[in-house]
Amino acid sequence: MRHENSICFSNIHQPESWKIENYISSGGYLQWKKILQGQPGDKARETIIEIVKTSGLRGRGGAGFPTGLKWSFMPTTEKQKYLVCNSDESEPGTCHDREILKLNPHALIEGMAIAGFAMGATVGYNYVRGEFIKDCYPIIELALQEAYSYELLGKNILGSGVNFDLYNFLGAGAYICGEETGLLESLEGKQGKPRFKPPFPANFGIYGMPTTVNNTQTLASVPKIIEQGSAWHKDMGTDKSPGTNIFSVTGHIKKPGNYELPLGIPFADLLERAGGMMDGKNLKAVIPGGLSTKVLPENIITDCTMDYESLASAGSALGTGAVIVIAEGTCMVELLKRTSRFYYVENCGQCTPCREGTGWLYRLLQKITRGNGKESDLALLVDVANRIEGNTICAFGDAAAWPVQSFIEHYYSEFEYMINNHGKSIAA
After folding, report:
1. What is the pTM of this model?
2. What is the rounded average pLDDT of the residues 43-50?
3. 332-420 CATH fold
4. Rounded Cα distance, 285 and 328, in Å
5. Is pLDDT above 80 for 169?
6. How distant, in Å, are the alpha carbons of 65, 165, 269 from that of 293?
7. pLDDT mean across residues, the chain
8. Which pLDDT value is given to residue 62?
9. What is the number of H-type helices and E-type strands within the chain?
10. Helix locations, 4-136, DSSP H
11. What's domain 20-234's architecture?
């Protein structure tokens, strides 16, 4: 396919792609050097932000907010400013950011340096998921050391007068730290509990200073966009969802993996690239954007293209691009119970609807799967989910509620069958 592996994965197939020599040999750090050799100042910074704006790049962490617009929120103050990369990849089903950290770490480093320059941030932090301590973290740490040894980071970089220091930070392994303000709290050495907003990080971020938080894939996309231009990026994907996305395709498929493809690819084409269904089974459902997005039955997802607008109109979301494929014969009640247990265990306990509501959801589903459920429990499940949604400090509550709402909406008969048959699954 045209434009496959053209941005974040553009050089990962060359031997030892993570080494700085190989990154440089394929054009890496050239854009950063050109910026440093230019005339640093407001005009140059504004130009970079405008390129990212007009490219249509949207945040790949789940929300899909326009990246250039987010950068423009950074105030033009003389205060210390910070850039933070969210590499706390913990959304179930999502496994592409770790591939960037392992195979193309310098794209992230260069992207952070360019972004920091554009916003006037002189210090950056890369917050890495704690579970990556043995896998990705040593590689991104080595890459950071290489960048410093080549004098591409630090004070007065290559004699340009530009300063940008970058630090890797290993998180503590909590899902909630994927939320940007919870991440900032953790980065400050506190419990990773989300903050009330406003104020937003652009005005009051880490250490109370202006801060921008972007996702790993988002920042790693920046060097290629600066190199090739906005029009090149907009030529990929759709009008409202330009560029590529790394789809982490898992579940009942023959070839699970990460596929960097243009946004807007039909779901059927993505499924074919992933080898099709395992064991000759038929498709039953798909969770299209990570566990926190709403499930879509086969008859809906097969008419979708993989972009923000199509999936939203279908009743779900692109999210992190983690596509969980579910085959016929899967018990949706058991799957929802496992999902709800995750949110029950991972909530931070700060908000009452989340702290108490996720426990109610999990226990009710336990009750049903153990054969003690009543039909009124289904209405109660939906009622609890509805009372969680929109009533918490961060979007964690929504993430816990949406699977319950969508599973019961689309697979009510399976829940009803299990209740009427004392815990026996219709899929058994």
Report:
1. 0.94
2. 90
3. de novo design (two linked rop proteins) (1.20.1440)
4. 8
5. yes
6. 16, 36, 21
7. 94
8. 80
9. 18, 11
10. 20-25, 30-37, 42-55, 67-72, 97-103, 105-119
11. 3-Layer(aba) Sandwich (3.40)
